[in-house]
Design a protein that fits this description.
The protein is mainly α. The protein has a domain at 68-127. The protein has helices spanning 3-29, 69-89, 95-128. Keywords: Coiled coil.
Length: 129
């Protein structure tokens, strides 16, 4: 095939693929163009601009809490406190800490052995005199 025929074949293949995919998407979407199976166009022409489409309370009034808010806030606060205390109080089990403690124990053992040797040498020199 020459280069122009390859381009024509590719264009025809793309057109056929597009038509098959388009018809499959139209069948699955339900309504064709625009809103799909899982979305609806909605009943508002444009957003109101408020969070969750809830207007603020009138001046001087406070917002009434939903029944789920207090348990959610209490649980979140307690979770943060328990995790903060618990994670700060956990033991240090890293390999570096273990190795450091073992090195300190060995140094203390060496110092004790040196002191015993010095005492033995001092005792031996005292006996010989």
């Amino acid at each position: 095939m020459s280069p122009p025929t390859k381009a024509v074949a590719a264009a025809a293949g793309c057109g056929m693929l597009r038509s098959r995919l388009g018809s499959a998407l139209r069948r699955r979407g339900g309504e064709g163009e625009g809103a799909g199976r899982w979305t609806t166009p909605g009943h508002e022409e444009r957003p109101k601009g408020y969070l969750f489409n809830r207007p603020p309370p009138p001046p001087g009034e406070s917002r009434k809490w939903e029944d789920w808010e207090l348990p959610c806030y209490i649980t979140s606060f307690l979770t943060i406190v328990i995790l903060g205390v618990g994670l700060n109080a956990k033991p240090d089990l890293t390999i570096e800490t273990w190795a450091h403690q073992k090195a300190l124990e060995r140094l203390q053992l060496q110092q004790q052995q040196q002191q015993q040797q010095q005492k033995q040498i001092a005792a031996a020199t005292a006996d010989s005199e």
